[in-house]
Design goal:
The chain is of the alpha+beta class. It is 56% helix and 26% strand. The chain contains 4 helices and 6 strands, in the order H-H-E-H-E-E-H-E-E-E. A 4-stranded antiparallel beta sheet has the order 2-3-5-4.
Length: 177
């Protein structure tokens, strides 16, 4: 009986030691799990930071694009894109009637390096009207170079006004292929 009492006397101590060891094992396990979760959370936070930085940059870019839209439109009007040659030619043909000149496009030639193109125009009208048409071409917002201007008197019309015929060759320098 003493032997059992002796054993029972040490039972709380043994139980406490076993509980302490078990608690330490649980603590170490939970500590490792918390550290793993913390690392995952940090990685997610870094990824979130990158995404947020990208979103903020995108918003700034959108804002800059909105602020500069008018200026970009104005700049783009000074260039002829290869897909926009027809509107450029339409612009030329719209200028002519404003000054009383008949204009026909006879040739369009795109350079081999696709950086410029030339347009041959045949015009008819009075000397003053053709001269005004040439001035309008020179002062439009496209960068052009006159390669040839050949004007010849063709005679008089029914009202006694001299008729002139002009051959104009221009090179469009603000051309984007």
């Amino acid at each position: 009986m003493k032997n059992i009492k002796n054993k029972l006397k040490h039972f709380p101590l043994v139980f406490s030691i076993i509980f302490f060891i078990f608690s330490c094992i649980i603590f170490v396990f939970l500590h490792k799990e918390v550290n793993k979760k913390q690392k995952v959370a940090q990685e997610i936070e870094v990824e979130w930071g990158k995404e947020e930085y990208g979103r903020n940059n995108f918003k700034k870019l959108e804002l800059v694009l909105k602020e500069t839209e008018e200026g970009r439109t104005l700049i783009e009007e000074h260039f002829v894109y290869s897909s926009d040659i027809v509107p450029f030619l339409d612009m030329i043909e719209e200028l002519a009637p404003k000054v009383g000149v008949d204009v026909k496009v006879s040739l369009i030639d795109i350079s081999k390096d696709n950086t410029t193109f030339t347009v041959d125009l045949n015009s008819e009208g009075s000397f003053d009207n053709i001269y005004n048409f040439i001035s309008l071409l020179e002062n439009n917002f496209y960068e052009i170079e006159f390669l040839k201007i050949d004007m010849k008197k063709e005679g008089e019309d029914l009202d006694g006004i001299n008729k002139w015929r002009g051959a104009i060759k221009i090179k469009v320098l603000s051309f984007i292929p």
